[in-house]
Design goal:
alpha/beta, Rossmann fold, 7 strands, 14% strand
Length: 255
């Protein structure tokens, strides 16, 4: 069965999706699901070897690999230029790239803060701007999906800067919705905010594989396919329905 399960994305077949952060975790699962659903999928991340492995996995699907450093605007510009050259632009953007560091305000490293702000906020803004420009000339019918975090609704100890980036995504989601309504556009925007999902995130955040095992071993946590199905759900809605926010946690997660 498809990653997306029985959800139908017929109206998106043959159209173009861009997924950032596609080399692992949620972004990878979403990329596989969109390709299986018949979309042309551009996948972006820094690790080209992982992207090439992903292309092999989807087999006959149309998948464009483009290594991209989302901290570099010129690299993002090159990504969009290649998509426009090959497929004419983007219809669906999944801002799946994101990173976190345990970098408290009192003791954190400036570069760690900068990395989070550049990837989680600034790159998301740049990709959104470029994708919306494409969508407006391709029929004014597209969808921007931000993969955010429950940290946009709470602040974990030591995680203030990371949480600030995800609170920013909440604000940017509402800001874009307002801008699109003012333009009377048919483009939709959605933010999906998971709690604990078993990915590479925790090991990088804590700089510890042991801490990651502890984080994901306390109770059954979300899996990447759970989030991918949320992406399918919002895309499957008819054009007059916009799912603005999805918040999902493991059943046993306290906060």
């Amino acid at each position: 069965m498809s990653v997306f399960g029985p959800v139908s994305l017929d109206r998106w077949q043959g159209r173009v999706a861009l997924v950032t952060g596609a080399s692992s975790g949620i972004g990878r699962a979403v990329s596989v699901g969109l390709a299986e659903a018949g979309m042309k999928v551009a996948v972006a991340a820094r690790r080209e070897d992982r992207l090439l492995e992903l292309r092999e996995e989807v087999g006959g699907g149309e998948l464009l690999v483009h290594p991209t450093d989302l901290r570099d605007e010129a690299s993002i510009d090159g990504l969009f230029a290649r998509i426009r050259d090959q497929w004419g632009g983007v219809d669906v953007l999944v801002n799946g790239a994101g990173l976190g560091h345990l970098a408290p305000l009192a003791t954190g490293e400036t570069q760690q803060w900068r990395d989070m702000l550049e990837v989680n906020v600034l790159a998301l803004c740049i990709c959104t701007r470029e994708a919306v420009q494409d969508m407006r000339v391709r029929g004014d019918d597209g969808h921007v999906i931000h993969i955010s975090s429950m940290s946009g609704y709470r602040v974990a100890p030591g995680g203030g800067v990371y949480a600030a980036t995800k609170h920013a995504v909440r604000a940017l989601t509402e800001a874009l919705r307002g801008e699109l309504r003012k333009l009377r556009s048919g483009i939709r925007v959605t933010s999906i905010s998971p709690g604990f999902v078993e990915t590479e995130f925790a090991a990088r955040y804590h700089r510890s594989e042991e801490a990651a095992r502890e984080t994901y071993g306390r109770y059954p946590v979300l899996q990447v396919d759970d989030i991918a199905r949320s992406v399918a759900y919002v895309l499957a809605q008819p054009p007059h329905v916009q799912v603005h926010d999805i918040l999902l946690r493991p059943t046993q997660q306290d906060t």
